[in-house]
Q: What sequence folds into this?
């Protein structure tokens, strides 16, 4: 199991990771980018973010 798969199984951990990434970004994501990253059809959610 990859780290991304482990994170995906724990929603609270996934949310925490996303918050950490967002906090480190120079420019915040738009609501549309966030929705696209969290969409179920996004094959690799961590890459989309």
A:
């Amino acid at each position: 199991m990859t780290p991304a798969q482990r994170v995906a199984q724990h929603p609270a951990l996934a949310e925490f990771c996303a918050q950490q990434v967002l906090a480190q970004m120079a420019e915040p994501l738009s609501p549309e980018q966030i929705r696209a990253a969290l969409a179920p059809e996004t094959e690799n959610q961590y890459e989309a973010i």
